[in-house]
Amino acid sequence: MGLDSAPKRGLCLRQGIKSVQSVKVQHELEIRDCGLMTYHEALTLQSNLVEQRQKDRIADTVLILEHPPVITLGVRKDLNEMLVDKGVLAQKGIEIAQVRRGGGCTAHNPGQVVLYPIIKLHSLGLCVSDYIRALEVIGIELLKKLKVPAERRRRFPGLWTHGKKIGSIGVRIKRGVTFHGMAINIKNDLSIFQNIVPCGLHGVQITNVAEETGREHSVALVKQRLADLCFKHLSGQNSDSVDRQPTEASAAKLPPWLKRRLRDGETFNRTRDVLDTLGLETICTNANCPNIGECWAKGTATVLILGNVCTRNCRFCSVTAGRPGPPDVDEPSLVVQMAGQLNLKYLVITSVNRDDLPDGGATHFRNVVNRCRRQIPDMRFELLVPDFKHCQEKAVQILADAVPFVFGHNVETVPSLYQKVRPQANYSLSLELLRRAKETYTDIQTKSSIMLGLGESETEVIDVLKDLRRAGCDRIAIGQYLRPGKDAIPVAEFIGPDKFHWWGEKARRLGFSWVMASPFTRSSFGAEQEKTDDAPILS
Predict the structure, then answer these.
(1) Quick check: 73 pLDDT over 80?
(2) Is residue 364 within 8 Å of 331, Cβ to Cβ?
(3) Longest dimension (CA), the chain
(4) β pairing state of 406-408 and 446-452
(5) Three-state helix/strand/coil letters over 243-263
(6) Does the reported pTM lie above 0.70?
(7) How far apart are CA 108 and CA 115, in angstroms?
(8) Which of 171, 198, 202, 478 is the most exposed place for a label (fewest CB within 10 A)?
(9) All domains of the chain, ordered by start, with CATH?
């Protein structure tokens, strides 16, 4: 739909079943009021619209609707906790739907307003974390208009009021286009939530606007207010509504050497589809990595095991912090399927910090490597592990059953910035892990990485490189820090390509056998390269 298109009337989802009335069209955003729509119909419509939006056949579109009673189960199996047998739910007329979106189980029924944006994030210059924040802002402002003070909670996506949950957020991104979205309880029957543990949060009370205010607002009026807020925050007309950071999506704020062409193509699409189908997480997407196009176009990706929720909250990282679920026992099998389908010969495996596990997740790393090795004997591995804060000796011994591999652990920055950048980590502990690994495993290479542009001095960086060499570290990756989202610390300085070349030469002179230094260098980028002496400065 172009800028001058008139509002549509009577657009049919399926002949003879339901008509959809367009509320209003403004600039590049269309909002459709779909009335009461079954979950299956809404999911089918979203899938069709996502495909059209990917091909730029339609404008950004938002669906606003209600659902008949339905319980939806997300991709986080550990968060899909049912309290009632499915047969009992069927007798109550409650449908159950398994869906591929973030989060765990939740419930929908009439009187709850649901928002499904079909948005091309690049068109708005948003990264995923900015988009989630925009949804939260829309919900908070809507509830404020309805006289309900709402807030977002760190580590717990959704909307909260007086300690009770009033709205849920669960999204999925497919080839840069969003779907699924947000549900806000207005005047719905809350007893449906007694059948589940909402989003896996035990003891959480669910509420709605009617309960909080004693008033039953018109759903039609709520939809109109919601549409106005979508135009405000998702149409691109209010540039201040979301604090956009200098990521690749907002490349106009970056120096010329940090602007990259977005990638696509057959191999990129195949990589994306394989990961999508298997439901595997990657650090590429969770950390908003600027190299995702480059890597996926070559058929490589860094798999993120042990979930995508981290027990720490480092301020340089966009990975979600919170309470993670138990390790997925099926994950080793899924990783080997991915490796086989992508014909990988070199696999980089990383994880979030799992301080909640007695071995820090080391057993899961070992199981993934050994399962892959049994199926693909000639595959080589690189592990990028957390610091195993409370169990280093135990973790290193467990991983001994999975050698050979490149053993990687990132120091990330200079010691003086740890309290600011990664306050729950310890620089000396990171060096100790690298030293311990080098002494324990024979004939392996150890590797680390450091980000520049956080406010470090040249002398401090040189001292870190020397510390790493003293710990026996063989490989080093040196790259530019880029702010991945609003909650991350800002960039202090953009380092030029010539300076990175200088750092690469400095690292080689200090004795590192494998060096990659460039603005776009990341710890797992180009990891499969045997030699880096002639590696170009990437641009």
Answers:
(1) no
(2) yes
(3) 74
(4) parallel
(5) CCCCCHHHHHHCCHHHCCCCC
(6) no
(7) 12
(8) 202
(9) 11-234 (3.30.930.10), 248-517 (3.20.20.70)
